[in-house]
Amino acid sequence: MTRFLRVWAGDPPLVAGVLALSLFGVAMVYSAGVLNDPSPVTQNIWLRQAAWLLISLVAFSLLSQVPVRWIEWAALPAYVMGIILLGATLVVGTGAGTAAGVKSFISIAGFRFQPAEPAKIATILAVARLLSMKKEGPQALRELLPPIGVVGLPLGLVILQPDLGTAMAFVGILFAALYWGGTPIPLLVLLASPGLGLILSFDTGVWSFYMVGLTLSLFFYRYRLYLVESVGVVLANLAAGTIALPLWRSLADYQRNRLLVFLDPSVDPRGAGWHLIQSKVAIGSGGLLGKGFTQGTQKRLDFLPEQHTDFIFSVVGEELGFVGTMLVIGAFSFVLLRIVRLATEASDPFAGLVIFGIFGAWITHIFVNVGMTIGVFPITGIPLPFVSYGGSFLLMSWVALALAVRVTQEE
Amino acid sequence: MNLEHPIARRQRGRGGVIVVAFLMGILTLAFFRAQVLRSDDWILQSESNRLRPLPVPAPRGTVFDRNGEVLADNVPGYSVVLLPGNPDTVSVTLDRLQPHLHLTPGRLGYLKEQARLYPRRPLTVKVNAEFTEASALEERRTDFPGLYLEMRPRRRYLAGEELAHVLGYLGEITAEELEEEGFEEYEPGLIVGKEGLERQYERELQGGQGSRFVEVDAIGRIVGSFGGPAERIPVPGDELRLNVDLELQKWIHQIFPQGMQGAVVALDVEDGGVLALYSAPTFDPNDFVGGIALDRWNSLRDDPARPLFNRATLGLYPPGSTWKLATAAIALDLGVVEPDEIMPISCTGGMAYGNRIAGCWDRDGHGDVDLLGGIRHSCNVYFYQAGLRIGLERLLEEGTRIGFNQKCGIDLPSESRGNFPDSVSWWERRFGYRATEGEVLNLAIGQGPIDQTPLKMAQFYLAIARDGSAPPPRLRRTEVEPEGGWSLNLSQRALAIMREGLRGVMQPGGTAYGSSLEHWDVMGKTGTVQNPPNPDHAWFAGIVGPHGGDPEVVVVAIVEFGESGSGVAAPLVSKTADFFLRRKHGIPVDSIQTLNEHYAAGRNPLWAAHLRAGSPGVTGGGP
Question: Considering only residues 159 to 218 of chain A, which have any Cβ-Cβ distance to chain B shorter than 8 Å?
Answer without folding.
Answer: 179-182, 185
